[in-house]
User: Fold this.
Amino acid sequence: MDKSLIRNFSIIAHIDHGKSTLADRLIQITGTVDQRHFRAQILDDMDLERERGITIKASAVRLNYKAKDSKDYVLNLIDTPGHVDFTYEVAKSLAACEGALLVVDATQGIEAQTVANFYMAKEHKLVIIPVINKIDIANADIDRVKLQLMEVLKFKEEDVILASAKEGIGIDQILERIVRDVPPPSGDPDKPLRALLFDSNFDVFKGVIVYLRIIDGKISPNASIRMMNSGKEYKIEEIGVFRPQAEKINGLQSGEVGYITCNLRNPHEIVIGDTVTDVVNPASEPLPGYKQMKPLVFCGIYPVNAADFHNLREAMDKLRLNDSSFIFEPESSQSFGHGFRCGFLGLLHMEIIQERLEREYDLNLILTTPNVVYRVKKRDGQIIEVHNPAQLPPSQDIASIEEPYIFAHTMTPMEFMENVIEMVKERRGEYKSSEYLTDRVRILFEMPLSEAIVDFYDKIKSLTRGYGSLDYELGSYKPSQISKLDILLNGKLCDAFSCLVHKDKAYYKARALVDKLRELIPRQLFEVIIQATADNKIIASAKVRSLAKHVTGKCYGGDITRKRKLWEIQKKGKKRLKQFGNVEIPQEAFLEVLKI
Assistant:
């Protein structure tokens, strides 16, 4: 097909600003999906996305549009997530596009992720079309938001499109601007094949489905292709596009976006960002690909039933096809046996992976306390990275410990500025600067990542009555005073609850852990003593009383020594149980501890 009639674009925005609804309207107005089969959030095909009302995975769809100039255009749309944990999905999508729709909520205005996504699109040299969405809502403040776009992101007033994705207002104008402003894809159809592998998925019947953006050349049915990273060769079985369901076609040319299958069954053979070329007429050099994302948060994932270990490994392999920012490696624990040490981009990312593993692969899992990566310099000069509290060397071998810091910025109404700065300081953060933007203030600060991963975003939302937003990027490592906090149950180490904390906060964390476990561990036939230790000292403890069994219930009257004898036998039995009995810990205890 004529490459000048192709437009590849993405929709980017802060979370909840209406990306998925706008994608729905574009699909509806271009007649891509029959009205009988249409449903809201049509590109969010995971149950989890529909339940939470957020986009987790970027989705590609091909739209046919007859413009006002009477030409038939092919628009390849990639809808992206908005949450900070899924920034990698946005980066991958932008690399496959020439343009982006930047959507801003008419009631909320510019948020932290709006700014982050704008600069990310600028880095990829994309044409950015600003869209103010939700103009139909009663409390929409269009003039204020337009002013923010002009002041903060330097758009011209005439560039801004006013729209309501819900009511279908401004959608024709958006389509016309895409056709007019977004350039057709570059690349030479006569050169050897070079295609960017930007995503993949697993199908039980077809094996690995590879998502491609063709840069140079073309792909034909039954052709033999080579992955330039691994050097492996495959024969193409099916070529297709998404409308949004997979639809088989006869080939893909330079500038087009689609998928291929080639009876590829091993997920390990696929690398996101790889270049696909032709075996007969190969390209001389690969495409730049993607910068590999480094996980920020680590935790252990173990099957409740040890027999599910191999099923868990298979499930993780398949899931990683669909989410290349998720990494894992085998590890073992005294408490749970064999499992995996997994890396995530944030706590929401971790929750999503857990839910997908449990739902899509029918697994019952236990997660350990999440932690960040610390750098430890040993006295012999060796520097090691600690992903797991169990990897921390003995204190006498440690010269210094460094922890990761982040540069974060939050956008909030001015009246909440002091509250936010106060909370940042409580979490060992350091205020850097602030910038006033019409009715909002952008606060920049630096803080330890470990203080931000759990509930920092939620706390900002609470402090600012829902108007605050957060975006961050990894900074450098800085020296810190870190202690290893262990939990002992009747003198036995329960490594699932071990965590690394700052020395100033060790007691408060220990007290919270011990109190929560005392609530959650059910009473056993023997007394359970819960102790928290740090730096070889017990800093908090609590007891779970034993179940009382009425052993003298059968004694009616008689000499008191008879009862005393039975009580002594019971006491010895409980002492023995306490020494050898295993403490039963319910699964909700592990989940609740994650929230502390």
User: Anything to note?
Assistant: The chain has a mean pLDDT of 81. The first helix runs from residue 19 to 29. The domain at 297-370 is CATH 3.30.70.870 (Alpha-Beta Plaits).
